[in-house]
Each structure stands twice: as structure tokens, then as C-alpha cells.
Amino acid sequence: MNIIIAILIFSLIIVIHELGHFLLAKKNGIFVTEFSIGMGPRIISLVKTEKGYRPRFILSQHEFDTTPEWKDTTKYSWKLLPIGGSCIMMGEDEIVEDNRAFSKKGVWARISVVIAGPFFNFLLAFVLAMFIIGVVGYDPASITSVAKDSPAAKAGIQVGDVITKINGNNIDIGRDVLTYLQFNPLSDETVNLTYQRNGEKNNVTLTPLMVKTYMLGFGYQPDEAAASINSVYEDMPLAKAGLQNGDIIAKINNTTIKNGIELNQYFQDNPLSDQPLTITYSRAGTEKTVEITPVLYSENYSIGLSVNSGRVKTDAFGVVKYSAVEVKYWIKTTIESLGQIIRGKVSKDDIAGPVGIVSYIGDTYQASKSEGVLSVFLSLAYISILLSANLGVMNLLPIPALDGGRLVFLILELFRGKPVDQTKEGLVHMIGLVALMILMVFVMFNDISRLFHS
């Protein structure tokens, strides 16, 4: 099931990409010899005859190309391997003396055809985003907590303020903040922050402080139910003190804890340090008290605030606006991730190819299926947005054999006033295709190795 779902998602994204090329080619009078769903050997094709479109089983490429009835019409094919699709245009990679050939059309017509594929990927991402945001809403960049005596607190920042800029970078949603800090970790350098409160924008300059994070090593739900422990981490202080899943925390340092909300509030008001805590917990109706010393977990710079990660509903205009923001977010994140790879800040284990993506899709499906069909659809639609925006960006890179590589030659033609020799361009694309295949083999090998070692 995981593999089937992954194939369906990949196929949808690639077929939509090829559909963009197809529609703009038709619009510009370029003859499309074949539009196919799937790859590899053909199973069946629809071809236009005097009596309309008829199915034809194709046994050989020679028969497909030479049968008079089929030679001069677009074939719509279903191929054996259910992965992706293709749009084959006359004169795309060879010299053809026909006014309907890709190479015979004006440069702007060809540019529109090339760009249409990535554009349709962005359009697919936008449509899927509209559905998700229409159902569950968007994540505003609002501040949910401000640490006592932190740089943010001293600057007058309050819970509910909405961040709009960090160091001159626009912030539209909560994930923008998290992604910015991921790619630009805080240091001892100042941070310029713009936030909005009651419709008024404010600017502050914050100097991050080094913050040591301590842990007890357990998990709980911050809700109105009793403060029950739902996970205990091995070799951490709570586990070493003998606490177990299901134990209920009743007191910390003589402060009564009635529920998960109060436990969460206690930790916000009293951040963990290297000082021991006296914890009273209940198990099977019996209370026990232990003294536990938190352990140092990390040392990071902080400005002392937390940003919303939940979602809120919005109106119809907001759905359209934040769907566009969603696509923008993934385009921007993809570009920044590529920059991290180029600068050597991302290891090979952080890069996923088809095998890794299939594994990720499978994990997402398994995690969401117990919550119902809607949850599964929303989760898979979210992955599809990520992948579709990713494919759009990657195809626009100036790499031979990709749409971006073709755009480079078309832009050169604009400046030169004449096209680059088609034979030379074809050779460059062939070299690029071989290089991409080698890279794909490496990425797939890396995916498989990581699966075996995980």
C-alpha cells in the first residue's frame, strides 16, 4: 500500500508537469507526437481516426511511427510502468523541417512551453494548499510564550504579537520563523525583529543570550487531564529515579500539579536548571517522593520566545492568500536547502531520493490512517505540495536536460538573436542527462543504505 500510494503521488505530480508542457505546446501550434501516463513499453494508445479516437494496442515503435493512420496525430498512451509520464514534441531534440516542430516556433513560444511544466507544478501545489487551508487553516506567526527576563521580555514583546520580519526577511507564517532560524542559527549577533500588535508595527533589536537547556526525560499531554507520564526516556533522570509510564505527577517542589496544563505552566514559569527537583508522583493510588537532578541537554543562543505551530481557520480570501503563501514557503525552502547543499552544510544523509521519499510517504500514511480518511488525505496532500513545489524548482535549475537547462539556451538565443546549433545543444543535454542518472544512482544507493542502517 505504501508503494502504491507513493506511485500515485509521483505520477500525479509528473503528469501535471507534462500536462503543462502539452497544453502550451498545443496553444502555440507545436505538434505533440505523444502524451503518455506511465513510462516504458506502451500497453495501449488512443489515436484519432476518421471515426474519432480509437484504442490501439501498440506492439512496436516502428509500427507506432510508420502506420499512415497514426503518423500525423497525437497519441495518448498508457505505459507499463506506473511512474510519471511524458510529453514528446516534434523537433524537440532533433532537426525537423516542419513548421509544427518545437524548434521552428518563436523563442517566446518555446520559453512558454518550457516554463509551463514547473508552473503547473506550482499550480498543483496551490490547489492542494487551498484544500488543506480551507479545512484546517494556516499557521500565523504569533508569539505563544515569552520567557521571563529574556531579551524578548525586556524589549516589551508580548504573547499574541505577530512577527512580520526577522533581519529584513519577510515572515508570513509560523514556519517561516522556524525555517529562518534553522538556516540562520542564532549567535551573539543582534537580531532585528518587526512585530505587529493591534494593527501597529514595532521594531526591536535583540541580543541573544546563551541558554542551557536541561531535561528530565519524559513526555506528557498538556491538557486538562491528570499530569500522567506517557513516555520515559531511557538513561535519563526520570527513568533512573524509577518513574514509569502511567505515573501521575502530583507535586514539584511543593507546588501542587492538578493536570497537564498546570505541569506545562510550571515548567514555563520555572525553567529546568542544574538544581535538583523534589517530585511527588502517584502510582496505583500510592504517592512517592523522589529528588531528581535534570541533565544538560543543549547549549544554544535564544531570544526567549516561542512561535505558534498550530493552525487557525480563515475566510475565503485568507484561503487564497495563504495558499499562495504555502507555495511560496516551499519554493523558498527548497531554494535555501539547495544553497545549504552547495555550501556543504548538508550531509548526504540529509538528502532523500525516490526510495527515501517512498519510505517517508509510507510512514506518514501509517501514522495518519488510524485518524480516518480525511486525515490521510490531508497528510498526503501536504507531502504532494512539498514534492510538487520541489519538482518545479528543481526543473528550473540551469542544468542540462532539465527545463532550466533548455531555458538557458533560449535566453542565449534572445541575446544572440539566433539559436544555438541544435546538434551542440542536444549533446549538452545528453551529457547532463547522463550526469543526472549517475547522481540518481548515488542518491538511491544512499537511500537504501540508510534504510538498512536505520
Automatic annotation (TrEMBL):
Cofactors required: Zn(2+)
Name the record gives this protein: Zinc metalloprotease
Positions of transmembrane segments: 107-138, 372-391, 427-445
CDD domains, A to Z: S2P-M50_PDZ_RseP-like
Native species: Anaerocolumna sedimenticola
GO biological process, one term: proteolysis
Family statement: Belongs to the peptidase M50B family.
E.C. numbers: 3.4.24.-
Signal peptide residue numbers: none
PANTHER family, alphabetized: MEMBRANE METALLOPROTEASE ARASP2, CHLOROPLASTIC-RELATED, REGULATOR OF SIGMA-E PROTEASE RSEP
Subcellular location(s) per record: Membrane
Cellular compartments per GO CC: membrane
Membrane topology: Multi-pass membrane protein
Principal cellular location given in the protein's record: membrane
